[in-house]
Structure formats: C-alpha cells, structure tokens
Specification:
The chain has about 120 residues and is an alpha+beta fold. Strands 1, 2, 3, 4 and 5 form a five-stranded antiparallel sheet that branches. Helix content is about 35%, strand content about 20%. The chain has a single domain, classed as Alpha-Beta Plaits (2-Layer Sandwich).
Length: about 120
C-alpha cells in the first residue's frame, strides 16, 4: 500500500467548490483503485494537504495514465488550484481502526454564517 501526500493552495473563493470536486470525483477514483482521499486544512495561513491511499504503485500509475484522470484535471476547479509536488510513501507499519471510523461523522462542522 502507498500513501501520496501533496500540499495545495486553494484560493479562498474556490474552497467549497474544490471540496465538492473531490467528493464528485470519488466514484471514478474508486473505480480505478483509490482506497482513500483526505483533505486536511491547518489553522489559518497554512497550506492544505491532500492525502491519497492506493493499493500499490502499479494501481496509482495506471490511474495517472487513464483518460478519466485527464477529464478530472481538465476541470475549471482543478485549474484554479496550485498543486505542489507529490511524494509517495510506502506504508511499512501502523494501523487503521476501520470500525472506529464509522462512529464519528468526518464531515467538517461549519458554523452558521452571520448575516451581513
């Protein structure tokens, strides 16, 4: 199993559309073998980190070569985001508590917006 990590700069006006773009691409990415995709955001002022998990380098490389990926990267949302170099990591230890993941709602909890 491999984990790919990259930082991205998402312009504030594209933030919600970027998260929706990630969610909308889930089915096609899963059809091509992705196991997980997580978007992590720091306190204000930092860069967003995107983490993807794949079964192997071969499965990831096959995804990179597919026209389906090209269709996703040709989108307006993808073009609005600045992507930093990706680093691949071999998973050599650790664990996932899969049943534990179902206990908590991983969706971000947004505070209601104040009327202007």
């Amino acid at each position: 199993m491999i984990v790919c990590l990259r930082t991205v700069v998402v312009p504030p006006e594209w933030h919600e559309r970027y998260l929706a773009w990630i969610a909308d691409g889930r089915a096609i990415r899963q059809q091509h073998g992705i196991l997980a995709e997580l978007v992590s955001e720091p306190a204000p002022g930092g860069e967003t980190v995107v983490i993807t998990v794949w079964p192997s380098h071969e499965v990831f490389d096959a995804w990179i070569a597919t026209p389906h990926r090209d269709a996703l990267t040709a989108s307006e949302v993808h073009q609005a985001v600045s992507y930093r170099p990706m680093t691949r990591y071999e998973v050599t230890g650790g664990y996932l508590n899969l049943p534990g993941l179902t206990v908590y709602d991983p969706s971000p909890q947004h505070a209601p917006e104040e009327p202007s």
